[in-house]
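User: My collaborator sent over this chain with a note saying "see what the structure looks like." That's all I know about it. Can you take a look?
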Amino acid sequence: MYSLTCPLCLLKFESVNVFFQDKKRSYHQCPQCSLVFVHPDERLTPEQELKEYRLHENHIDDEGYRKFLNRALTPLLSTIDSFTNALDFGCGPVPLLAMMLKEHGLQTSIYDPFFFPSRDVLDKTYSLITCTEAIEHFHYPHKEWSLWQSLIESGGVILVMTKRVINQDRFKQWHYKNDPTHVCFFSEDTFRYLGLKYQYDVQFPTNDVVLMKKL
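Assistant: Without extra context I'll predict from the sequence alone. Here is the result:
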């Protein structure tokens, strides 16, 4: 038994049971917010992460990548005219979603700690923040969630796209956990916890997209 601190809700707890363990990493679940996370000692260094990210082969003109991101964009289309601006947070080296939002007439800024690290865009507020396939990479997601609270406008929406934890048995066979850059795994219960803590209406339009509207 040893002590852990949840990287999302910051609860300190005694790890009685490991949620799952393979040959490379151990995974723990927070008893308060239900986040499943890799033990801090088993995460990649920033240099190792960047090396992995550079292996990705997404391109602006990749129709398959566009179709994939449409899964995040589609739930927004019915209300997209209500947004005044957007921030694509954790956009990676190819900010295609930002381009797609601009195609719908939405002024969109981009931020990524590795590829677009200018923090100037973090000095204003937004009616929409998107984070697609990035939140699972955050080592200390409480920092990003706290930052987002200073960026999102009242009535604004945070859209997160990430595959969600279903249960312990499904997790054991889950390919998503095998990416070495994936270190934090969210479930519906985790997003509901965040909704209560930060006062958001939480909706799950698809099995990997969550919409959180600031109340």
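A starting point for your reply to your collaborator: Residues 2-214 form a domain with the Rossmann fold fold (CATH 3.40.50).
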